[in-house]
Structures are given as C-alpha cells and as structure tokens.
C-alpha cells in the first residue's frame, strides 16, 4: 500500500473460518446495553513487536498494530509493517479501521454482518487512495545537514506499508492482507495459513 504499490488491489483473502471455537474469556466488548448480533462471543488479544534488527539498527520502528471492539462480539485487529519511513503505517493505524467500518458490508444483518469480505476490500482500497492523496498534498519537508538544507519530501512520499486485518464476527473469521503481512490460524497445535503474499505485479 502506498509507495509504489498504489495499483495493488487489496486481496481480501477473506477466509471464513467456519464454526471457529468461541475464543476464551475476554477483554472488551462487554457493553450489555448494546448486545449486538453475537452476544455469546468474546475475544482476547495480545501483541509484540521487535524494534530493530541488524539490517535497520538505529532506525525508528515502523510496525503498527490496531485492536478494536467494533460492537459487542465483533472485533477487528490489524498489523501494519511500514517501510521507507513510518508515514504510511502511521496513517493506517489512525485511519484503516475507520475506512473499513464505514463500508455497507459492516452493517449488521440478522445474526451476521452484511458483507465483511467486501467491506475489507473496499476499506483497503479507500485507504490506499486517501494515503496517496495525503502524500500529494504534503508541504515541502526539509532537514538541515551540516548547514545545508535537504529536501526530503520525495523520500517521505515513498513511504509504504504491508498490512493484514482480521475481523471476528460471531463464529466466523474474515481476513484480508496487502503485501506479505500474513495471518496464521492456530488450533490444536496445527497451523493454517489464511493469507497469500502478493505484490503490485500479482495483485
């Protein structure tokens, strides 16, 4: 997304994990005044990130993670792996879920969401368009190096990010990814890859 991947279509490899076991005891989404369509489902999440490795030692951490209880028993989680600066991953951490949530596919329909697969696809595509607009509108950015003014605007505009988003709604799991951010479902000691890596050439 962004930085050279502007034409990449968000492959909503929207894997629906049929009849997933209800997650364990929880954190969030317990508003009894708003039971929502799936009052029996609860979720728990945690996260960790490695700030640096030998290749990018000394550079800022460009990873971002977003967790959200959309409504009771509907949860959304995203990870963003920025590159060439944190501009894009920062933008996604602030905006991506909003772009997804406002899509018609996220509306409740009986005991499920209307079309979360389409909501993920359209939300990602809108995020891509809006990030590129924001970069085009960016004012000139400069830094001083040994008394010389260096224009870094073009470098900042090259920022990009891969991303992966998971929506848990009731007993279903919907996943979308851009780039090589991956989602793996683990159950009873076994792993199931829910995403396919892709780039602008294969999107």
Describe the overall structure.
The chain is of the alpha+beta class. The chain has a single domain, classed as Phosphatase 2c, domain 1 (4-Layer Sandwich). The model is unreliable at 4-35 (pLDDT under 50). Helix 1 crosses helix 2 (116-136). The strands form four sheets. Strands 1-2-7-8 form a four-stranded antiparallel beta sheet, covered by helices on one side. The protein has a two-stranded antiparallel sheet with strand order 3-4. Strands 5-6 form a two-stranded antiparallel ribbon. The protein has helices at 87-101, 116-136, 153-157; strands at 63-71, 74-83, 108-109, 112-113, 142-145, 148-151, 160-169, 172-178, 184-187, 190-193.
Give a brief outline of the structure:
This protein is 20% helix and 28% strand. It has helices spanning 87-101, 116-136, 153-157, and strands at 63-71, 74-83, 108-109, 112-113, 142-145, 148-151, 160-169, 172-178, 184-187, 190-193.
């Amino acid at each position: 997304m962004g930085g050279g991947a502007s034409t990449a279509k968000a492959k909503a490899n929207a894997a629906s994990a049929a009849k997933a076991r209800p997650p364990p005891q929880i954190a969030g989404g317990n508003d009894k005044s708003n039971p929502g369509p799936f009052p029996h489902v609860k979720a728990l999440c945690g996260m960790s990130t490695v700030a640096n490795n030998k290749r990018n030692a000394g550079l800022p951490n460009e990873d971002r993670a977003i967790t959200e209880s959309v409504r009771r028993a509907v949860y959304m989680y995203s990870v963003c792996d920025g590159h060439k600066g944190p501009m894009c991953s920062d933008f996604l951490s602030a905006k991506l879920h909003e772009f997804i949530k406002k899509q018609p596919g996220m509306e409740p329909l009986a005991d499920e969401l209307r079309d979360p697969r389409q909501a993920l696809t359209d939300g990602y595509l809108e995020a891509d368009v809006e990030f590129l607009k924001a970069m085009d509108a960016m004012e000139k950015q400069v830094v001083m190096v040994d008394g010389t003014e260096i224009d870094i605007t073009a470098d900042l505009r090259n920022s990009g990010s891969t991303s992966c988003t998971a929506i848990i709604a009731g007993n279903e799991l919907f996943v979308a990814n851009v780039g090589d951010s991956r989602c793996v479902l683990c159950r009873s000691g076994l792993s199931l890859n829910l995403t396919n890596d892709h780039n602008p050439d294969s999107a």
